[in-house]
Structures are given as C-alpha cells and as structure tokens.
Input
Amino acid sequence: MRYRMLGDVRVGAIGFGTMPLSIEGRPDETRAVATVHAALDSGVTLLDTADSYHPPGGTPGEGELLVARALASYGGGTDDVLVATKGGRGRTADGDWSVNGRPEHLRRAAEGSARRLGGGAIGLYQLHKPDPAVPYAESLGAVRELLDAGTIRLAGISNVDVPQILLAREILGDRLVSVQNRYSPAVRDSEAELRLCAELGLAFLPWSPLGGISRSSLDGASALEEDPEFGAFHRVARARGVSPQRVALAWLLGRSSTVLPIPGASRPSTVRDSAGAVSLELSPEELAALNAA
Output
C-alpha cells in the first residue's frame, strides 16, 4: 500500500467507502464483515461511513455499528485504522435523503456516532452536506465546538463549493483536513475544488469515484466496453490486464497528491481489486488519454 496524508494522519492511498454494506441491496452480515476484513488485509486504513447509511425505515447508525463490529472481530491490528463518519443527513421512509445542519442536531449526531464507533473521539467527522435552511457558518460552528470538546479529532466537509471550503477553513483552521465531493470519470465538476484542496493541503476524497465505469469487470463484460466517452479507461485496462475500475482509481490518484479515493464494495474480491490501484503506475501518455476522455 502507498500512503497519503489526511491532516497529520498517514492513511492508505485507497480508502474504502462502506455505504454499499449498509443501505438497500446490502449483503448479509457475514459477507459485509468479510469485505471490511479484506480491505484491511489489503492495506486499507481509511474506512468511510455515515450515520445516515441505513436502509429506508432502518435505524440511524447501522453502518457505523457494522464498521465497529468488523473492526472488533478483525484478527489483525487496527491501531492505524482511521474511521471517518459523517453527520447532517438522514433517510426518509421512502428512501430519499434529507439534510439537517442545525447545530443542536449535529452535536447530538456526533455524540451518537462516537458511542456507536466505540466511545472515543471520532477520527474524522465530516459535515455531510450544507443545509440551505441553516447558515453554513452556524453548522461549521457546531463542528468547531465538537473539535474543542474532543468529541472529534479532525474535521471534514462534503458536497461543497469553493466559497464554502474557504469559509470552513476560516472557521475551523488547520483542523479542517478534508473535502469529500463527487468526482469520477463521468463527473468532473469539482475541478476548482480539487485544485483548491491541492493549494491548501486538504485531502480530497472523491465519493462515487467509479461513476462512468460500469459494474466490476469481475462480474463479467462491461456494458460500457465500447462507449466512446469512457472507452479510454477500458482500452488502458485491456492493455494492462487489469479492471477498468482499477485504472479509474489509478487515474484519480494521478490527479493530485492530495486525492484519496474511497470506492465502495460489497464483496471481498472487489475491495481487493480496488486496493490494487496503488501499484498501477500509469504513463504520462495514458494519463493524458484518460484526462481527455
């Protein structure tokens, strides 16, 4: 595993987004835990979850509890594992997503997350999404209070634009260490945020980093094999003898030294394939072709 910095913490350059283990369509507990263990075996040390990762009608925090159980049952060491969770979103009964950035809600949510994850300070707590009904500075103020109280160690923000990053930096200072925005072969509208993170030394955690690349090649032929928009990823994959998903993650790592992709997975084989992206060195010519795709 190669490593990158998240604040003052060194983590594996490929993280693991555990959302698929917790929402609708999730695998059974045995396979879910085995998938987390496979990630750890592969050198992954950043696990990303949220209190809202649960099926419609489920209980907030189910995803966090799963991560805690998986870590507790792991046969190896976990001292170097950083668990990142998020607060400020929820699920409705019909499966939609809600947002709640009220300071009192964020304080309660973080305290609940800390209990579910084992009772200590949360390694990285991320404000899940700006709430249009609440001034962003007020939500960030609650995160600052959580830092001051020791409930959380490091802070991150998600689904934000450049002015919101700059405001968070002003309010949270150096304790703001990460930005988690959607970024993938198919969705590249966070270029300005990615550049700002590189300038400020903030980790950039792309969520849904495999957008545009179809189901894992481990499941069979890709439906996007000949798609001209993303064909470059498949051509490089065929030439290298690896999955297009691994190529996409290696491309993301090449976008900036601050990028920490957090691909999801629901099977051990898939998370192992993702972790292998750290050893795939793409040539300048390959990177140029993928950048232009």
In short: The chain has ten helices and eleven strands.
